Amino acid sequence: MRCKFKLDSINRVIQPVNNEGKTQEFNSLVFTPVYANNDPEHENSKFWKYTPSGKLEIGTVNAEVVSHLELGKEYYLDITAAS
């Protein structure tokens, strides 16, 4: 199954790792499904038909992953069963 989501926010938080003052950056990525426009043939209108609402929030401490994402950009999410 393929979904299409837009990256709506990147929330960066610096959090303590231990009692010695070491910290790490934690990133919360919030995606929402794309929405239909007035063109029924547009790809987003077709995705909207099957995923009209929702929210996907993913957390990561991997700054490399976040550096490849762009706020406001649309991304495909492929869902396949794990074996």
**Total count of domains:** 1
Give the oligomer, counting copies of the same chain as homo and different chains as hetero: single chain
Strand order of the largest sheet: 3-2-1-4
Determine the strand fraction and express it as a percent band. Answer: 35-45%
Q: What is the share of helical residues?
A: 10-25%
Structural class: alpha+beta
Contiguous runs where pLDDT drops below 50 for at least 5 residues: none
Short description:
This protein is of the alpha+beta class and 83 residues long. It contains 2 helices and 4 strands.
Walk me through this protein's architecture.
This protein is an alpha+beta fold. It has one domain (2-78). Helices cover 16% and strands 43% of the residues. The chain has two helices and four strands, in the order ββαβαβ. The protein has helices at 43-50, 63-67; strands at residues 2-16, 23-33, 56-60, 74-78. The protein has a four-stranded antiparallel sheet with strand order 3-2-1-4. Strand 1 and strand 2 (23-33) form a beta hairpin. The longest helix has 8 residues, at 43-50. The mean pLDDT is 88.
